[in-house]
Write a structure and sequence with these properties.
This is O-methyltransferase C-terminal domain-containing protein. The chain is built from 17 helices and 12 strands. It has 408 residues and is α/β, with parallel strands linked by helices. It is globular and about 75 Å long. The structure holds S-adenosylmethionine (SAM).
């Protein structure tokens, strides 16, 4: 008799609320016998590898009919790259397709929670770049799990805004300290003194990434900071599981979304390499920073914003452990590394200048014009931008599974 069984009137009875072994589960699924308990055990082990969370929604999400039907057209991405295989099959891009199907959207949210929570646990263990942030927006934040974890760890962040498509935040759970705002990052983004963005840029083309980042720049208050957390293929990519996971993710994105590939560390800004602690390069006003994302990964503003000072340098006040394989990058202004001075915090007046919905808990539809006005008011030349190699090192303590999921 097994530990979770007892005898009742001579009959073997299973005790309630006790763990079942794989073979016991198998006898429930296949009462007439058969099946392979060892293989079932493998699946269960994977599904439980995220603690209380489940990896299952992620697996299910990637194997939905809508995705599977795009795979036979993967070669089309080579023959005609103007339309991604998903659109060729379904006639519209993946996110608008999800938007019409509440169950797909729900699955996407659960899939993201399942993979992002363990990922963020690693990030928050070592990354200190949220120091001094008062108002933080997570662009493309899905159900808000990343923001919830950031706020739970950093109590100095007064307000978190989870910004995603209206149909996504419309079903997101309520989270203390977090306001869900629905909108379109291609129109505008709620104002904040830091923007967090994870696994968003990787699914868009270079031109689209430029638009998103321009809107981030407009939304940032003086001294603002953008923390972008995206997969990056290192120069010395090899045959490791990590590299393969990244390359597979790349094909997934190519088939389902529209990006033209994950960034490689070669495409980071001038003279900048992940982990290069000696890099301390400033790009002055005269230098052309409005470059192709593929060449440089950063393109901020159009010609009218050229007068702004844009800097690339190494931040030296961030304590970070050493990680051999970096796969993330961050754009960050040095000024915002601490938020102790009054002008770096959001003043009462600035808070009042924000559209009303950003201060009201609950779900609001994003009003493009209000934010555009506010955002452009902040284009005062005070923002400086940098790429922070030490922060990047800290950000990217990723486990292999998290990497696999980076392109969902
Ligand atoms: C790969 S998911 C990443 C989710 C979350 N950042 C994470 O890491 O768990 C990309 C997110 O971007 C959102 N998104 C897509 N298009 C958007 C748009 N135009 N404006 C705002 N969010 C968008 C999606 O709804 C989705 O939640």
């Amino acid at each position: 008799m097994e530990d979770n069984e007892c005898r009742e009137g001579g009959k073997k009875v299973r005790l309630a609320n006790t763990p079942l072994s794989a073979s016991q589960i198998l006898t429930c699924i296949l009462p007439s016998g058969g099946g392979d308990a060892e293989n079932l055990q493998c699946i269960l082990r994977l599904l439980t590898s995220y603690g209380g969370l489940s990896y299952a929604p992620y697996v299910l999400q990637h194997h939905q009919d809508a995705f599977m039907s795009a795979w036979p057209l993967v070669h089309e991405a080579v023959l005609d790259p103007t339309i991604e295989p998903f659109v060729k099959v379904h006639g519209e891009p993946a996110y608008s397709y999800y938007g019409k199907m509440p169950e797909m959207n729900g699955l996407m949210r659960r899939a993201m929670s399942g993979v992002s929570v363990p990922f963020m646990t690693s990030v928050l263990d070592s990354y200190n770049g949220f120091k001094g942030v008062k108002r933080l927006v997570d662009v493309g934040g899905s159900a808000g799990d990343c923001l919830r974890m950031i706020l739970q760890k950093h109590h100095f962040i007064c307000e978190g805004i989870n910004f995603d498509l209206p149909e996504v935040v419309g079903e997101a759970p309520s989270i203390p300290g977090v306001t869900h705002i629905g909108g379109d990052m291609f129109n505008s983004i709620p104002a904040a003194n830091a923007i967090f963005m994870k696994w968003v840029l990787a699914t868009w083309t270079d031109d689209e990434c430029k638009l998103i980042m321009e809107n981030c720049y407009k939304a940032l208050l003086a001294g603002g900071k953008l923390i972008a957390c995206e997969p990056v293929l290192l120069d010395d990519s090899n045959e490791s599981q990590r590299t393969r996971a990244l390359l597979e993710g790349d094909i997934f994105v190519m088939t389902i979304y529209r990006a033209k590939g994950i960034a490689s560390s070669l495409s980071l800004p001038h003279n900048y390499k992940l982990g290069d602690e000696d890099s301390d390069q400033s790009i002055s006003d005269e230098e052309d920073f409005n470059v192709d994302l593929r060449d440089n990964c950063v393109s901020l503003g159009g010609p009218s914003e050229k007068e702004k000072q844009i800097s690339v340098f190494v931040e030296d006040e961030v304590e970070t452990p050493e990680f051999p394989d970096e796969v993330g990058f961050i754009f960050s202004p040095r000024k915002a590394s601490t938020c102790s001075s009054d002008e770096e915090a959001i003043s009462a007046n600035e808070a009042n200048a924000l559209p009303e919905f950003s201060r009201t808990p609950g779900i609001k539809t994003f009003h493009k014009d209000g934010f555009q006005d506010f955002g452009s008011a902040r284009l005062d030349g005070e923002n400086t931008w940098s790429v922070v190699s030490k922060e990047a090192k800290a950000l990217v303590h990723l486990n292999e599974n998290a990497l696999c999921s980076s392109s969902s």
